[in-house]
Amino acid sequence: MxxxxxxxxxxxxxxxxxxxxxxxxxxxxxxxxxHLLSHTLSVHPQPAQLREVPDVYGNVRCYFxxxxxxxxLSVVARSLVSTQAHGTPTSTLPWEQVQERMRYRAHGTFDxxxxxxxxxxxxxxxxxxxxxxxxxLGSGASVLDVALHLMQRIHSDFVYESQSTQINTxxxxxxxxxxxxxxxxxxxxxACLRTMGLPARYVSGYxxxxxxxxxAKLVGSDASHAWVSVYVADLPAGARWCDFDPTNxxxxxHAPGEDYVTVAVGRDFGxxxxxxxxxxxxxxxxxxxxxxVEAAGGDNTGPQLQPSQASTPGSxxxxxxxxxxxxx
Length: 328
Prior knowledge:
Blueprint: E1 2-24, E2 34-44, E3 49-54, E4 60-66, E5 70-83, H1 95-101, H2 127-133, H3 143-157, E6 159-160, H4 171-177, E7 179-180, H5 182-195, E8 200-207, E9 224-231, E10 241-245, E11 250-253, E12 260-266, E13 275-281, E14 284-295, E15 306-307, E16 315-319
Parallel strand pairs: 6-7
Antiparallel strand pairs: 1-4, 1-5, 1-13, 1-14, 2-5, 3-4, 8-9, 8-12, 9-10, 10-11, 13-16, 14-15
């Protein structure tokens, strides 16, 4: 499947921003189930500096700086990817063995996946996550079976509700209220697995949403998405991550399906926020975000921008307010 993605972000600041430094995670990855065919990033005003560099997880991040006063910022990422389904793998490795393998031992064999067992800013270890996870941890059950059961329970137990949480809502709060958006569901699933010693990572990307029968696709109705990738140690080397989407109850090898586009992987949302930065000035702002994901060759008139939150501190870090977390 060939998919075209347009992700547009617009800020309007009052008063003007004097200088700014930004970092974007908007370039899709290439992996076994996805090949990036083309990607462009357009920034207005013209940045004084723009460069792309890989991060520690193999994502490509873009740094750009604005050294002249500006009231508006527009960032438009256009990507074309080719995806394919890889089906669902099989694994018999019990979760207890994976848990034991991830324990630290002096002079023991290092497994890079161990990094994704530790807590992170958005994904803490906590007894409440362990309590929720335990019904999925049957004795001798494989890691795949545990992850699949946990994903299905989250999908069943939690209510998707836009605006019920914010970017910085703690995962524990979302767990307690049993509602949230895809970012929350991903963080909860990660916290459950990691608290029990199983490595799992956060995935940001996009999902092609098919229109209801007899209705036209709404341009701009697509959104950024988030899901979970779980480490399965007995799969072939280089292909040991399986993806689980608790929002939609879908899973697969390398991606939950060929209608998914992977952008970046990390410990949690904070590692792969689509756009964030440090600004001097701009005590107030309005933000509009629009995302379109469609089959390549379709009639694409571009994303319809949706308003976001309207204020931020005058100087300092302002994370991207990602309304693409919503899923229809």
